[in-house]
Automatic annotation (TrEMBL):
Keywords: Oxidoreductase, Plasmid. GO terms for molecular function: 3-oxoacyl-[acyl-carrier-protein] reductase (NADPH) activity. This is 3-oxoacyl-(Acyl-carrier-protein) reductase protein. It is an enzyme of class 1 (oxidoreductase). Belongs to the short-chain dehydrogenases/reductases (SDR) family. Pfam families: adh_short_C2. Residues 14-182 form the Ketoreductase domain. Its EC number is 1.1.1.100. SUPFAM superfamilies: NAD(P)-binding Rossmann-fold domains. InterPro entries: KR_dom, NAD(P)-bd_dom_sf, Sc_DH/Rdtase_CS, SDR_DHRS6-like, SDR_fam.
Length: 261
């Protein structure tokens, strides 16, 4: 399935693919790119969400296309990148799709652990595998939205931390493997971000939300737009020497011990 706004033969302009683009961070990243005139491909499983975000792109300077897909479906991703190649290729991938499930190793069942690892880690691998030939040809960039849970542990987030640590390691290796080919690979590690996924995560434990929010020195969670601005910077000429970077975007919460006044 492909929907479009301003669909036409792509012009030779900056082009980006954004996963998880139906809401939250992914939607904000997609908007950031089209607002600067880029062509944008938005990918997500949620068709209605994609179309809702797409409706905001009316009048933007570039082409905006949507694909329905699950990042764990390698064959589907292969078909999508064949279509992207036909439409002219891409310069940047920003991988925002992900899931979070709570639980210790004794509490979590195997199926849930597999879900988190498949979406967050294997999905990154499958996307990078299909995207890399396009990115090599355009000397582009691959940015993964990891997490502060990819650089430290968190009580009750065993599978999520494991998957995001894996994403950080994968990105570092990709930076070494594909930097010589002109492709820059980086990871953004936000703390909690005000998204629908966060609301779902804390739906049954509002006190936990308050606890984590107070642990941020800047006194608030990140907004999706905060992440989008950094993703846009990494994919710009201003970020042209960033490769293998793991960037904390957490208001200072991983800087050290902090005691709220």
């Amino acid at each position: 399935m492909i929907d479009s706004q301003n669909m036409k033969t792509p012009m030779p302009r900056e082009t980006a693919l954004v996963t998880g683009a139906a809401s939250g961070i992914g939607a904000a990243v997609a908007r950031r790119f089209w607002e600067r005139g880029a062509n944008v491909f938005m990918l997500d499983r949620n068709v209605d969400g994609l179309r809702n975000v797409l409706s905001d792109a009316d009048g933007c300077g570039g082409t905006v296309n949507t694909f329905q897909a699950d990042v764990t479906d390698g064959a589907r991703l292969g078909d999508i990148f064949a279509e992207i190649h036909r439409l002219g290729g891409i310069d940047h991938v920003v991988h925002c799709a992900g899931v979070a499930r709570l639980g210790t190793v004794t509490e979590m069942d195997e199926a849930t652990f597999d879900l988190v690892m498949n979406v967050n880690l294997k999905g990154t691998f499958l996307l990078a595998k299909r995207a890399m030939p396009c990115l090599v040809s355009r000397k582009g960039s691959f940015t993964a939205i990891a997490s502060d849970a990819g650089t430290q542990g968190a009580s009750g987030y065993a599978a999520y931390c494991a998957s995001k640590h894996g994403v950080v390691g994968l990105i570092k290796s990709m930076a070494l493997d594909h930097g010589p080919q002109g492709v820059r690979c980086n990871a953004i590690c936000p703390g909690f971000v005000q998204t629908p996924m966060l609301d779902q995560l804390f739906a049954d434990s509002p006190s936990d939300r308050g606890f984590y929010e107070k642990s941020v020195p800047l006194g608030r969670f990140a907004r999706p737009e905060d992440v989008a601005e950094l993703a846009g910077f990494i994919a710009s000429q201003a970020g042209a020497y960033l490769n293998g970077a793991v960037i904390a975007l957490d208001g200072g919460s991983t800087a050290g011990y902090f005691s709220a006044a």
